[in-house]
Amino acid sequence: MKIGKIIFYWLPPILWAGLIFSLSGVPNLNSGLEAFWDVFLRKLAHATEFGIPVLFLFRAFRGYNFSFWKSLIFSFFLAVAFAFSDEFHQLFVIDRQGKLFDVLIDSLGILLINFLIVFWNFSSLNLGDYFKRGKK
User: Fold this and answer.
1) How confident is the prediction along the chain (136 residues), in pLDDT tens digits per residue?
2) Residue 129: what are its φ and ψ, rounded to 5°?
């Protein structure tokens, strides 16, 4: 296995996981906005920050010739597992709370990206071979 291939496919999800982990360690990420907008934007950020790794993970699995569906399923479960671990991590951070509700929000973002990947794969959109690698 070539180190360049490992870096090319696995560095993006690892770096993104590191970014999420570091942000989770920051006490009190209050935006300063009024309560509704603060909560709304934070939940939207949760869904987005956990949806993005699905793309990175899916790309990595496809780069190793996993089938489309296997890549999608593995990406989904790995991202959800990381969402759980992120909330667990927040239990140990001052002024942060680990919440199952946040895992649900994260999972909705993950699921949305999974649906978009399926849509892109079966639509007429031309995204090159990004989703076409490996076996069907």
Assistant:
1) 689 899 999 999 999 999 999 988 888 777 778 888 878 888 888 888 999 999 999 999 999 999 999 999 999 999 999 999 999 999 999 888 888 998 999 999 999 999 999 988 887 655 555 555 544 4
2) -100, 20
Give the residue among 134, 99, 130 at the shortest CA–CA distance from 116: 130
Distance CA 117, CA 130 (A): 10
In the chain, what's the furthest Cα-to-Cα distance?
51
Closest residue by Cα to residue 13 from 51, 42, 46: 51
Work out whether the CA dihedral 69, 72, 75, 80 comes out positive or negative: negative
Other beta carbons within 10 angstroms of residue 91's beta carbon come to 10
Q: What distance in Å separates the CA atoms of residue 50 and residue 116, rounded to the nearest whole number?
A: 14
Tell the residue number behind the tokens 């999972």, with chain if given: 107
CB atoms within 10 A of CB 10: 16
Q: How many residues does the chain have?
A: 136
Main-chain dihedrals φ then ψ at residue 30, nearest 5 degrees: -65, 135
